Amino acid sequence: MSAFRFTTAGESHGPGLTAIVEGIPAGLELDREALDRDMARRQLGHGRGGRMRIETDTVEVRSGVRHGRTLGSPIALLVANRDYANWEERMNPWPVEGFEPEEVHLPRPGHADLVGAQKYGHADIRNVLERASARETAARVAAGAVARGFLTALGVEVHSHVTRIASVVAEQRDELTPADFAGIDNDPVRTLDKTASKAMVEEINRLRKANESLGGTFEVIAFGLVSGLGSHISWEDRLDGRLAQAVCSIQSIKGVSIGEAWDVATRPGSEAHDEIFWSEAGGYFRETNRAGGLEGGMTNGQPLSVRAAIKPISTLTKPLRSVDTETHQPAQALRERTDSTVVPAAAVVAEAMVCLTLARAYREKFGGDHIDDVRAAIDAYEARIDAR
User: Fold this and answer.
1) Does residue 362 contact residue 229 with C-beta atoms inside 8 Å?
2) What is the pLDDT of residues 222-257, one digit of tens each?
3) What are the structural domains of the chain?
4) DSSP classification of residue 341
5) Are 349 and 364 in contact (CB under 8 A)?
6) Closest Cα to residue 127, out of 293, 8, 269, 13?
7) What global pTM score does this model have?
8) Distance (Å, rounded) from C-alpha 205 to C-alpha 202?
9) CA-based nearest residue to 83, from 91, 95, 71, 75
């Protein structure tokens, strides 16, 4: 059994984006429409820009799947960039005779532009911004859709919802179930609070007219997880650390918490933890989930809650002050086609990263060359812990 891992390649306006996923067991049935459905969900949300009118992302499977079932070998996924047709001379992998690309020398505050150019020795900032762009997340969502298919086969569901955009906060809802997320993608900002949804749209419209971008917060919830994913034994095996790194790696994400972390930090201990009970019928259980489904770096069988904060994106329609890297003179930062807010889409990307992290945890714990081996290992494990 190969270790579960994934990687992505590609630039924002290059020919396309590629993801390679290793470690998915053989025999897993994948739903082609489900893969493309996740790609479409990444493009949702009021406040998206012109790029979403150009791209209609779909996943082309290049290896590792035959007649809808995984082979156990690496799965290669391709997401084409339709906009490449408008950038072919500027982003061609090879020199184009008679064409000299115009260099970018105006770094955006808050972006990878300046530091990336310094670190890698690029005079042309486009060599940085093309890879640093959040367009890369299309490949992550493609890989995450494969991981979601694996988790679905194990009875796990992963959902997300927006909890805040700029100053508008959605009403907090406790004890959410998978049924609560039915139709959420039909909401313009992917929130469960219909009153807040209207206010969020108005806030986006208001600040967009003022040439501003907007940040916010969201929550990803995983249902149906087995208890004991992750470990307390070693720091790198703690699942909360892995989830925080995975979600914080998404462009513009600046903060991640597990469960009610920021609220719990303000409470006394008696109001911070989830008391443990036991019944003859159901075994151990908890009446609250302040820990967000993780204790000691391990899942405890409750729904897993990962919350994140995303800053306003750094490309503004009214650019901030910057410096020309060639002349060192004051200048306005680069202005490119941009979104007003990406909070709803970022939540979908975070779903993908949570799916990928959980898929890795399941593969490490249960192994198996075939999907039936994984199911059998889970059944045996659950029978053992239920007997205690």
Assistant:
1) yes
2) 999 999 999 999 999 999 999 999 999 999 999 999
3) 5-386 (3.60.150.10)
4) B
5) no
6) 13
7) 0.95
8) 5
9) 91
